[in-house]
Amino acid sequence: MSDHVPLLEMKKVAKDFFGNQVLKDINLKLEAGEVLGLVGENGAGKSTLMKILFGMTEINETGGYDGEVLFNGKVLHFTSPFDALAEGIGMVHQEFSLIPGFTATENILLNREPQKKSVVSEVFGERLNTLDRKSMKQKADGAIDKMGMHIDGNMVIADMPVGHKQFTEIARELSKEQLKLLILDEPTAVLTEQEAEVLLQSIRGMASRGIAVIFITHRLHEIMSVCDKVVVMRDGVLVHDVAAKDTSIPEVTRWMVGRSVNIDAQTHRKPPETPTIMSIRKLWVDMPGETVRNVSLDIREGEILGIGGLAGQGKLGIPNGIMGLYNAGGQVTFDGKEIPLNAPRRCLDSQLAFVSEDRRGVGLLLDESLEWNIAFPAMQIHNKFLKNYLGGLIKWRDEKAIGEVTRKYIEELQIKCTSSKQKAKQLSGGNQQKVCLAKAFALNPKFLFVSEPTRGIDVGAKALVLEALKKFNRENGVTVVMISSELEELRQICDRIAIVSGGRIAGILPATSSSEDFGTLMVSKVV
Amino acid sequence: MSDLRNAGTGWQERLVSAYKSFGLPRMIIAGMLVVLLIAAPLVGANFWMQITNVINRFSWNSVLVLAMVPMVHSGCGLNFGLPLGIISGLLGATISLEMGFTGPMSFVMAILIATPFAILFGIGYGWLLNKIKGGEMMIATYVGFSSVSFMCMMWLLLPYRKPDMVWGYAGTGLRTTISLEGYYDQILAKFLQIRIGSLVIPTGSLLFFAFLAFLMWAFLHTKTGTAMTAVGSNPVFAKAAGINVDKMRMLSVVLSTWLAAIGILVYQQGFGFIQLYMAPFNMALPAVSAILIGGASVNKASIANVIIGTILFQGIVTMTPTVMNNAIHMDISEVLRMVVSNGMILYALTRKTEAKS
Amino acid sequence: MNKKQNNASGRLLNFLGENSVPIMFVIIVAICIPISGFSPKFLLNEIITRMGRNVFLILSLLIPIMAGMGLNFGMTLGAMAGEIALIFVSDWQIWGIPGIILAMILSIPISVVMGIMCGKILNASKGREMITSYIISFFTNGLYQLLVLYMMGSIIPIIHSSIKLPRGYGIRQTVGLLNMRQSLDNLLALRIAGVKIPVLTFIIIALMCLVIVWFRRTKLGQDMRAVGQDMEVARDAGIDVERTRIISIVISTVLAGFGMIIYLQNMGDMATYSAHSQIGMFCIAALLVGGASVDRASIGNVFLGVVLFHLMFILAPTAGAKITGDTMIGEYFRVFISYGVITVALVMYETKKRKAKAGMGHLLEAAQREEEKANA
Amino acid sequence: MRRILFRAGTIVLLIAIAVCMMIIGRGHTIYFDNKTLEYEGTKYEAVRRINVNVNGEQVAKLSKKERGMATFTGQKFSFDIEIIREKNGPSEMRTFNIEVPYTMDGIVVNLIGMIEGLPQDAWLKEFIPAPVVEEEDEEIIIDEFDIPADAREPGTVPAQEPDTETASES
Fold first, then answer.
1. What angle do CA B62, B64, B67 make, to 5 degrees?
2. Which domains does chain D have, with CATH numbers?
3. Do B157 and C333 count as a contact with CB atoms less than 8 A apart?
4. Does the model's pTM come out above 0.90?
5. CB proximity list for C150: less than 8 A, separation 6 or greater
6. Which of A7, A342, B63, B106 has the CA that lies 20 to 30 A from A111?
7. Where do the domains of chain A lie, and which CATH numbers do they carry?
8. Does the B35-349 domain belong in CATH 1.10.3470?
9. Which positions 29-48 of D are in contact with C (Cβ < 8 Å)?
10. Could you tell me which residues of chain B have a Cβ less than 8 Å from any Cβ in chain A?
């Protein structure tokens, strides 16, 4: 046993991004021909672990990792994914990496095309070799056969259904002869049920050919049906590593979300039994990657409602759709009046406010001062911080009032900055988030959507942001809907939590419900 | 990381960052102008005459450069479609003359008549630019070109009849250049003109520019102006804050077009002639490079950029021929101007700007 | 979607929509031919001459389009390289076909250097290649004039005073190429019913077309197509995106240099300071008239474009004069059309790009309605 | 290594072609004189008429004191002349081969000297064009945009497209 070398072995792997520990003490073994199911919530560290294994450049750029990764008994030092590919590690990413105007064959063999030499290439280099279309077709067909799912090699990617694109990606990895380990990152997310079944079969096929597979998915039943062992990660730690046959879906779910911290019932008030302030009916939102399908939801006045769920399931689409940032349809009534969709101004006029998850893209004017950032929406919507001349004909910016309100919020939210005139892009993530909150608070809204308020900020700032939200809700009676991928965070401050799965509301539970209940809902309708 | 940066923004760092934002090419150009100024008396050119020339050229061109500001602010990029505004100005000028106005009145009427054209063209142009967000600059260039060549036909076909404007032999079709003597030649420049020796200051023109620049500055301080800047800085932010992005962009395009129309009229009163047909072609690039030389980028521009840029650019353009000719008897000024102005635009285009969609 | 495509009228509409520019030109030309009163023989002669003259230049635009860099307004750089080479050749008094071949060889290093410069700048301004390449052409024009107007004859030896300015340095406004005028076109030329066919030029063009077809099948051509469609994916697959883009510009510049030499040998003399300034615009307009777009162009587009665009060019002044009584109207009209067609093509390209980005909200809505029906 | 060799080969080949072209493409103008010639004290009279043929094509018919012209490329030039000494008299055919120095753009040959078989320096001279007195520098317009006022196709000077012009006038 001692001289047996596993295909892949990780020893005490750890990784931090600028002091933010995202992986701790990961130990893992994988044999050739084994299928490993990797599960965990978003942010549990799965993707970072895979990035380390695949040699993604961002790992190196952020200071590398600790511990050792051994492949075939050799310690790995990848500087780029190409090194990983050369060693025989392949990865199918969640986002397609395909050339839309190329056929499946061309994509499968992208930059690895069989070539024929010619006189010209002797002079100008190998890149003037002509492509050997015939053997390209053979190779591609071979890879497609290996996969077990038939796709048309001559079909252009742009004309393919999504599932076939996914299979093209897989075939590309399989066409690499040296392939020993294949990482599949949520490959079934875009597949129909039948296609997913085919994929599972082909995973079994690969395993029987001696290829090890790491299979990342949220669909636990898939894990159970295809994997030899299940590895569960949570908060950057590998919590369980068991054989698939020795466990069950409920147990895995519990491991995934279950934290020992039990929510203290005392800190939680009783959910207010107030009348509905906003009712959403049959909402659909076309937000790429966060599609919302047929959501109906009632929000009570003065409560803090949490919306949770796994990434890509559509929880972010709900506020973005209602606030008019993405194309949406359906019915939203607020305070007895219907709110037109796709019209941000009308929402803001009805005293709704939104703190976007995309701080840099949507939330801030990075090149402008904090004053502008905080005062801008209030100025535009409520004509605040303006001096009127000529009977309101000229609305002059009141720099003094803007400065005052900015300093007020800087103090209140403890925004670290040199002055209220500092540019927003110079602040750290946490402080930028506070500026976004201040911007929303300055609008004096009746109703506030906060989307991923703690994403990418440090622990201290996190607590402050959550506290500020809670205070805003309690003191001003503002209804708050908070969307977050971190269940614990939702459970801390929310009254009720709605879980979105597959673009739909899977269920609404009081914040005091158990982690397993939430976990079950999260994976219930995953698409 | 950024906290660190926040903590220590000493004056040295500010100096360095000021230098960095100023950029090497601008340093070179400013340096060149200083050298020219020093060299001018040495090679026997009249220093004050040179200064007069520079001020004069500044007064002709500054409004055209100012016309760049609104579109840069709203994120439409550099207005390569300036000729469209110039055409509105030309229409105003020729119609005012055709209607028989003379003296100062002809200038006022030219502005008044040019305005509706500028607004109309601006709306059309703005509508088009809203349909093709992201590709503004290239399309603006070609909208400018197409409109100029279209107007070439119109100058021939429109029923102008005034004898001093049309071709003598045919009796129809406007001349390529129309003298403004007796109309608004030097109308602003002569107003409150100051003469000290060989230094002549066209006070009226400068005041007129100052007035427009003030209006621009004031506009940018109003609610609408603020919204326009926000649209340029981050259109998604503006949308989320309830701003009608398309409307703001449209407004900026109309403003830009109108300023271009006024700009060409101011240019004409200094130059003394109306230039028609292919002349507007030459107008966009110098204005674009002037504002860039002044420190603007593809998405940021201020009044100060306009003033500094116009002085630097026109300084180089007016001083190099005399200085070069006197010094080395080889007039490479035209070539130098092409290299400098286009090089500046290239420099600005290759700067990375925040990716926005 | 499928239903719509199978629908015959839908397909027709699609066809009309995609080829609206060439169809418009066919109509313009069809109206102008009877008005102008030109004989078919004259028109045929003109078209064949202009084809021989222009096609090679336009072919040089195809490769950057393939690499996703849009219309290469920087082809002017190649034209300048060709002109510099021709100035030397005509100063050295190398005549005829040897002169043309020598000029082509001389233009290669100049084109390559300029192409690398242009490619590097374009790599620094991804996403706005066209406006940048457009400005590069102006910028390089300044450098060209510095070289030709000031350095030639003073620093770079120029022997013959016939091409030198009287002041002793700088090249004259026009350089006569009488000794190589149409020597390419006249060799093997055929006359069929009074129509002169420059067979050799056409053979060269045909060879070039074959080279382009072959090039598409090479690894480099494949890489260029990949880079053109998605730079990120290409980079992930290990293709050196920057280098590939530079190569595409270099090839285009070299070909444009050859094209310019072919063009000028046909013209028989060279306007030193203006021959190149408009050539990019006319070539691009012709290509677009042939039905190409910013991201897609074929050899067929080139030929169709040359025929239609130049027919319009020949016909417009006369037809304009017949209609309005003023020759200048037609002259301006064809300039307007050239700019107009580029504007229209750019607008169509940008709107298409935006449309492609726009989501599929209606599909979601439809799916939801289906679902409700199923539930009801 | 192999590739470097091939590349070097290609460059050498291109240079070789270029050099070749420079030699075979070098253009010269040759002027034929039928003029009386004095050489070392002897006077050689011009003849009544000389016809000059190059490659079987007549390029000049020279009476006394006349000068004809032909152009050719390369360094070797051969031509035939037909000498007619008297009206309606018999004609005499001669073929000449001359070599022209590379550096000379144009040469003048005195046919009489050649016919008489004099040494080369007697009948071959470099042609030096009379310096043309030119008016002041021509204006070089290097405007940035350079749209010609009449907006023709670049470089298309009207004179070169007579057909278009005449047609448009008719």
1. 110
2. 27-126 (2.60.40)
3. no
4. no
5. B330, B332, B335, C169, C170
6. A7
7. 8-88+178-257 (3.40.50.300), 98-160 (no CATH), 263-351+445-527 (3.40.50.300), 368-443 (no CATH)
8. yes
9. none
10. 1-3, 5-7, 9, 221-227, 229-230, 233-234, 236-237, 239-244, 300, 354
